[in-house]
């Protein structure tokens, strides 16, 4: 088990970790894309709901 943990520690030393600035940029990008996707899906949901409502009322 100790050998495994040493191996993990050695591998983590080789990882190219992002800088705090890169982390902030990527986090902001993910949040903005998530909000845009939610707005896009919400818009289509509202349109389909409106169309379905009109279809049911005119039936």
3D structure, described in words:
The chain is mainly alpha-helical and 59 residues long. The chain has one domain. The chain is built from 2 helices and no strands. The longest helix has 38 residues. The chain is elongated and about 70 Å long. It starts with a helix and ends with a helix. The relative contact order is 0.06. The model has no long low-confidence stretch (mean pLDDT 95).
Helix percentage range: over 70%
Q: What's the overall average pLDDT, rounded? A: 95
Estimate what percentage of residues fall within beta strands. under 5%
Radius of gyration: 24 Å
Number of strands: 0
For the termini, the CA-CA separation is: 70 Å
Q: How many distinct domains? A: 1
SS-derived structural category: mainly alpha
Coarse morphology:
elongated
Number of helices: 2
Element-level helix/strand string: HH
Main sheet attributes: strand count, strand direction, barrel closure: none
- The parts where pLDDT drops under 50 for at least 5 residues are none
What labels describe this entry?
59 residues, mainly alpha, 2 helices, 86% helix, elongated
What is this structure, in a nutshell?
The chain is mainly α and 59 residues long. It contains 2 helices and no strands.
Topology:
Layout: H1 2-14, H2 20-57
């Amino acid at each position: 088990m100790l050998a495994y943990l040493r191996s993990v520690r050695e591998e983590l030393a080789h990882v190219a970790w992002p800088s705090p600035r890169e982390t902030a940029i990527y986090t902001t990008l993910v949040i903005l894309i998530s909000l845009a996707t939610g707005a896009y899906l919400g818009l289509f949901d509202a349109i389909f709901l409106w169309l379905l409502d009109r279809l049911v009322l005119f039936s």
